[in-house]
Amino acid sequence: MGAKQLGFSDYELTTAKKQTKREKFLAEMEEVVPWAALIALIEPHYPKASKKGGRPPYPLATMLRIHLLQQW
Predict the structure, then answer these.
(1) Rounded CA separation 18/3 (Å)
(2) Total tally of structural domains belonging to the chain
(3) How far is CA 63 from CA 13, 22, 29, 46, in A?
(4) Residue 37 — φ and ψ, nearest 5°?
């Protein structure tokens, strides 16, 4: 009769799953790569959005991560 309803955090803890290889790799990549330094180095050379129109470039951080994933 005194059963307590589980909250979202309680449910998350009770249904915790094993970390996948992808999650492990991305977590390790996040720790190892100096993102801020690399973005600051590339930023001056990365294309900006044109006033003439056209498709805007993807965000630099996104493109950098995609490029490194392709290389690894």
Answers:
(1) 28
(2) 1
(3) 34, 19, 15, 10
(4) -65, -40
Among 37, 30, 20, residue whose Cα is nearest residue 68: 30
> Smallest Cα–Cα separation from 22: which of 72, 60, 56, 59?
72
> Token pair of 2, please?
């005194």
CA gap 33, 66 in Å, rounded: 13
Enclosing domain of residue 61: 22-71
Chain centroid to Cα 71, Å, comes to 17
- Whether 13 is covered by a domain: the verdict is no
Check residue 67 and give its pLDDT: 93
Which pLDDT tens digit goes with each residue over 8-66? 777 766 776 788 898 898 899 899 999 999 999 999 999 888 888 888 889 999 999 99
Position 25: which residue type? F
